[in-house]
Amino acid sequence: MKTYFVYILKCADESFYTGMTNNLERRCYEHNIGIDIEAYTFKRRPVELVWFEMFTDPTQAIVIEKKIKGWSRRKKQALIDEDWDKLVRYSKNYTEYGKDDESSTSSD
After folding, report:
1. CB burial string 62-72: b at 16+ within 10 A, e below
2. Per-residue 3-state assignment (H helix, E strand, C coil) for the chain
3. Residue 98 pLDDT > 80, yes or no?
4. How far apart are CA 93 and CA 20, in angstroms?
5. What is the pLDDT of residue 97?
6. Confidence band, pLDDT 50/70/90 cuts, at residue 92
7. pTM of the model
8. Are residues 40 and 7 in contact, defined by beta-carbon separation less than 8 angstroms?
9. Vertex 108, ends 106 and 10: CA angle to 5°?
10. Does residue 106 have a pLDDT over 50?
11. Quick check: 4 and 61 in contact, CB under 8 A?
C-alpha cells in the first residue's frame, strides 16, 4: 500500500511551509539542498520538519494539505504543538469570537 505524507516545515526565517509527498525523507532532503531556485523554501533554508501525518488515500492527503495551507500561523503552531484547545479556538470565526492577545498578524 502506497503512503502519502502531508508535512509542515519550519524555515530559517521562522515561516512555515506545508506540502505533500510520497517520500518524506527524500522531500525534506530536496528542500534543504535547494533544488528549485523558485521554490518558497530555497531562500529560507535550512528547513526543519516539525509536523507530518501519513495517509493511504492521495485525495485525502491533498484535501488536508490545502486546508492547512489556508490556516493562520498560530493555528498551524497549535497543530504542531498538539494543543487541541487552541486549535479549536483558532478555528472559530473572528467576527463572532474576536482575536485574543496571542494572535499573530502573520499568516503563512
Report:
1. eebbeebbebb
2. CCCEEEEEEECCCCCEEEEEECCHHHHHHHHHHCCCCCCCCHHHCCCEEEEEEEECCHHHHHHHHHHHHCCCHHHHHHHHHCCHHHHHHCCCCHHHHCCCCCCCCCCC
3. no
4. 27
5. 55
6. confident
7. 0.85
8. no
9. 110
10. no
11. yes
Sheet of 16-21: strands edge to edge?
16-21, 4-10, 48-55
> Letter for the amino acid at 64?
I
Instruction: At 93, list the grid cell.
Output: 470565526
pLDDT at 86: 92
Place of cell 509536523: 51
Cα distance between residue 80 and residue 15, in whole Å: 13
- pLDDT tens-digit series, residues 22-79: 999 999 999 999 999 999 999 999 999 999 999 999 999 999 999 999 999 999 999 9
C-alpha cell at 33: 539542498
Give the integer Cα–Cα distance in Å for 43 and 56: 32
